[in-house]
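Field: COMPLEX_INPUT
Field: COMPONENT_COUNT = two
Field: RESIDUE_TOTAL = 554
Field: MODE = joint
Values follow.
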Amino acid sequence: MPALPLTDFSRLCVHTITTRPWSIEEAGERYAAAEVKGITVWRQWLEGRDVAIAGQRLREAGLEIVSLCRGGFFPAEDALGLQQAIDDNLRTIDDAAALGAPLVVLVCGALPGQPLDESRRQIADGIAAVLDHARAADVKLAVEPLHPMYADSRSAVNTMRQANDLCDQLDSPAVGVAVDVYHLWWDPELKTEIERCGRAGRIFAFHVCDWRTPTEDLLNDRDLMGEGCINLPQIRGWVEDNDFDGFIEVEIFSNRYWAMDQDRFLEMIKDAYLRKL
Amino acid sequence: MPALPLTDFSRLCVHTITTRPWSIEEAGERYAAAEVKGITVWRQWLEGRDVAIAGQRLREAGLEIVSLCRGGFFPAEDALGLQQAIDDNLRTIDDAAALGAPLVVLVCGALPGQPLDESRRQIADGIAAVLDHARAADVKLAVEPLHPMYADSRSAVNTMRQANDLCDQLDSPAVGVAVDVYHLWWDPELKTEIERCGRAGRIFAFHVCDWRTPTEDLLNDRDLMGEGCINLPQIRGWVEDNDFDGFIEVEIFSNRYWAMDQDRFLEMIKDAYLRKL
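Field: COMPLEX_OUTPUT
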C-alpha cells in the first residue's frame, strides 16, 4: 500500500550534490540548522579536506552520515584500467571508513565502445575484488541501477532485476542495492524486484527526486518530489513494506534548482518531504 | 551470431522523418534516385495530400511502402479522450490502407499525471478496440516499445518483454512488434525477448539508428549507424536469426543531420548501411 505521510524529519537525508553551491562545511551547517538529520557526501566535496575531520564536524553538527557517493566505474579497456578502477574503489572505501560513512554507493560504469555484457562481467569482477577490503573496513556497498539512458557511459546495470542478479552472484552481506526512484520508476517489474531485494535483506538505500516533463537535460534536470510524474508514495510503500526503514535521501541534480537560493530550496525540499512522499 | 554484411540496398527503407527537410514528393524522388527500396511515411507528411495518390506516386517511383508512422497514444484522462484516441487510430488505419501501407507503427502513449499501470491497461483496451477494423482493412499493427526515458509522456510500453506480453494478451495475428535498436539496445533481456517474439511470428518491423555519447537532446539527437555505441550487427543477427527478413528501416531524429545537405546525408546512410550494420 502507499506509504503513510512522513510527519517529521528524522529520516530526511540530503545529498551534498543536491545543494551543489554549498561546500561541505556550509551544507553541514545549513542542513543541521534546518533539522535535516542525515547527509550523504559526494566524494568531490572532500577534496582538499582531512576526511576524518570532515566527518567529525558533520557529526558534531548533529548529522548522521548516511553514505559516500560514489564508487564504481569498474569497466575499462585494458588490464591497467581495470586495476586502476579497483584501486580507486579501495581508496573510496578507505575514505568512507575515515569519514564514518557505513555505505558506498556504486555507479557501476560503462564504456561506449564496449559490449554491455563485457562491462557487466567487469563490474561483477570489480566488486568481487574489493569485497574483502569493504568487509574489513566495515563499509557496505550499494549497487545503484541507473536509468537505461545512462547505459552508454555511466552504468551497464540498469534495472532492479540486474542489481538483484548481481547481488545473488556476489552473495555477500556487504553488497546490496540503492533504490533510486529516478532510475527505476518506469520498470513494470519494480514492485516484484523490490520485494525480491527486501526478502534478501539487500535494500541498503532509498533515493528520491522526481521526473520532469519535459526533461531538457539528460543529467541535470531532475525535479523536486511532487513536481514530476513519479508515484512516490507507491514506491516508498513498496520499499517500506519490504523492511526498509532507513533514511530517505534527496538527490536532485538540477541546473534550475542549483541556480536558486539554496536555503529557500532546502525549505522546498522539506515541504515536499512532508507533503509529497 | 552477428549478421552478415549487407551487400545491396534491396532491404533498405528510410523514414520520411529521417530526411525531415524533404516533402513526401521530394523524399520519394530522392530515395528512388538513390536506390533506396522502401519508404516509411510519417503521418504529417500526408497533410494536405490525397493519401491514395501519394501512395500511388511513391509506388510509381519504384518504392515499396513499408509502414505508416504512427498510431497509438491511447491513454487519456477521461472517456471522451479515450474515444478520441480510438477514433484517431481508426482514421490512421484507413490512411494506411489508402496509402497502401501494410503496417501501422504504434507509439502507445502515456500521460505524465497517470499511473503507468493505468496507461498500460488503456493501451491494451485501445488496441483491442481497433483490431477488427485493422483486420478488415488488411493492415497490421506493430507495438513499438519506447526507451524508458519516454515513459512519462510518449509510451508506457518500454521493453520487448512488455510488448510481447501485450501481444500475448491481445492474441491476434494482426498485432506484432516493431523492434527499434535505439529504444531497446540496453536491455539485458533483449536477445531472449527477440527470440520469444520471433517464435510467435511477431517481429513486424526493424528500425535502426545509433546512440550518441553524449546525447544532448532526449528527442532529436540520434546518431547515424556506426557512429554510436549500439552493437548493430549483434542485434540485427538476433532479429534475422528469428525469422525476420523484412526491411531495415533507418529512422534518425537528429537536429544535427537535418541541418546538413540531405542528399549528402542519404549517401552517408547508404554507406553506413553497407559498412556498419
